[in-house]
């Protein structure tokens, strides 16, 4: 613990997988490391992937994430527990191979537009 | 607010944002059935790895040994538009899974509590959970053949559900019926937001 000066003291979740260059990703770093079940992940199209440096499961994740997927979907489709998927994904995000989007949360009141969109989406089914 | 989720530095990657609704209720109440009836993908199941220590609540033995356990979670997906995806999670209703509900409930739009007409009381822990956390929910009474036909007000009385909480009868196997349940929930969330509760 004492030698992890690069991690934000305010984020207890930041573990050894948090590399400093995650910060260069351009949005809040916590998006990258605090993956939720419904964080949506996608393989970065421009990334040049060094597959030799990855776990086989990570190669499978990259393949699956050519279309946007939630963490839960990656877990279910590859049959890897969510907690493990999060670790593998954090590493891929750190390498710049995967981009993630934090879920829409309702800690602040949901906007009418979102509610209307959800309602329309349900009724369209 | 369904804004484009592309990372500015990557140009072509557009990442949708996700939102979730929970489908709760006792074992066999029809949670997986409801998820499946509206999901655009066959319901998926994921396993959450948990150490027994985090189950702690009802384990008073004080044993330090941490064995791991897995909890299965069913979910489905509905694409709302290019920028928004809705996930439906069927959440196990037993009290010993509450540690998992907390993470799941965080940031959810709202919840459907499925009441099983054969054993109404099994949805009570779910009702209690959402009430305590002020998460908007609706009660959907899943009508099983041969079971007592409740009318919504009977259910409200039996489970002492607040007059503001919508109660609807449903058939979890029917897409139309499940759509109606979800629409009722979203409208209820809209009213809750408007009322500033
Ligand atoms: N008659 C009837 N059966 C249902 C209905 N919903 C679910 N079932 C059946 O009840 C069983 C349990 O449903 P399931 O969705 O697995 O329950 P879960 O444990 O809450 O996920 C399944 O065999 C379903 O086919 C319903 O609305 N009516
Ligand atoms: Mg089920």
TrEMBL record, chain A:
Pfam families per UniProt: DUF742 (PF05331)
InterPro entries: DUF742
Taxonomic superkingdom: Bacteria
Protein name per its UniProtKB record: DUF742 domain-containing protein
Organism: Marinactinospora thermotolerans DSM 45154
From TrEMBL, chain B:
Keywords (A to Z) from UniProt: GTP-binding, Hydrolase, Nucleotide-binding
Annotated GO MF terms: GTP binding; hydrolase activity
One family name in Pfam for this protein: ATP_bind_1
InterPro entries with a match to the protein in the record: Gliding_Motility_GTPase, Gpn, P-loop_NTPase
PANTHER family the record matches: ATP/GTP-BINDING PROTEIN-RELATED, GLIDING MOTILITY PROTEIN MGLA
Sequence similarity: Belongs to the GPN-loop GTPase family.
Protein name as annotated: Signal recognition particle receptor subunit beta, a GTPase
